[in-house]
Amino acid sequence: MTSIAKPPVRHPSSRTNGIGLTLRDYEGAMSTLCAGCGHDSVTAALVQAAWELELPPHRAAKMSGIGCSSKTTAYFMKQSHGFNSVHGRMPSVTSGAAAANRELIYIGISGDGDSLSIGLGQLSHAIRRNVNMLYVLENNGVYGLTKGQFSASADVGSKSKKGEANESTPIDPVLLALTLGATFVARSFSGDKRQLVPILKAGLSHKGFAIVDVISPCVSFNDHEGSTKSYAFTREHEVEAVHADFVPLRREITMPETGEEVHTVQMHDGASVRLRATTADYDPTNRESAYAHVRACQLRGEIATGLLFLDESGKEMHDQLRTPATPLVDLPYEALCPGSAALDKLMARYR
């Protein structure tokens, strides 16, 4: 489905940031995702974070792969650069773009299917290279575009649209990132804008690879077996004149304001998710304790959220490769291709 352009309406009393832009200036096309999709809440948080950071939209590059999550790049910062890559290949495409032009702000949007299945190797190497980018992983545990099959992040025991229980051990992107040496690791919930916006701002400001795993509910595939309003029940009892599908209008799922460390959030299908934020004495600079905290939450049936790990001493890709300060895209041909004599001198070092 083609995205619809938003009307260019600007209210005269709209607040502007330090570079004279309003929140509307950081928006994109109209979303074609299901009403109530958590991904649209992530979009709103990205718009807010970019506006507050006063990012010049033309200096940003939005990168994505394939999936519901990868449509997100169309919905914010319409004046930015963008590249929608092959399924699972966004990290390597971004690595190449960042190598050529280090002056752009790279925002990669991916999903649990795009990142943890076909793109798992790509994600791993972007982490170890410490590519200077914000990597937002919109995590809903299913393949939404292909009707709700389990993704690699689906929890053991969770039920699919048809009622089958997942028996495969999930891949946790936070634990994976911590293990591979990521320098910025965080997790949040799409319905908790108060927590998500500061995390995105921190990730955008971090020099190096910043991964933010965002739990983002899929409203279309959260219905459960036994419900008379489920897709399965309806299709078994209807007399179908033509084949059609319908996604019911849902309310956005948001975080309740309780002041407690653990929040229980009700999903549309009646299931609940328990989210635990970090405490005031939590040390995000200790990789081992961060890993232990995430695992302890898992064993209690909770999802650890917040800024989980930060290493500001890590070298990002350009520091590791010792590339020049001038972006490669701006270097003259003579500097990039110094000729056969320079090549012979270089090759002599390896004889």
Please describe what this structure looks like.
The chain has a single domain, classed as Rossmann fold (3-Layer(aba) Sandwich), CATH 3.40.50.970. Helices cover 29% and strands 17% of the residues. The protein contains eleven helices and eleven strands. Helix 2 runs parallel beside helix 4 (120-129) and helix 5 runs antiparallel to helix 8. The longest helix has 16 residues, at 38-53. The protein starts with 37 loop residues before the first helix and ends with a helix. The model is unreliable at 222-249 (pLDDT under 50).
Short description:
With 351 residues, the protein is of the alpha/beta class. Helices cover 29% and strands 17% of the residues. Strand 10, helix 8 and strand 11 form a beta-alpha-beta unit.
CATH architecture descriptor name: 3-Layer(aba) Sandwich
- What is the fold-level CATH name, i.e. the topology? Rossmann fold
> Structural class from helices and strands?
alpha/beta
Task: Please provide the count of β strands.
Answer: 11
- Uncertain regions spanning at least 5 consecutive residues: 222-249
Tally of contiguous helical segments: 11
Strand order across the largest sheet: 2-1-3-4-8-7-11-10-9
Mean model confidence by pLDDT: 83
Number of domains: 1
Percent helix range: 25-40%
CATH homologous superfamily title: Thiamin diphosphate (ThDP)-binding fold, Pyr/PP domains
Name the shape in a single word.
Answer: globular
Using the CA coordinates, give the radius of gyration: 22 Å
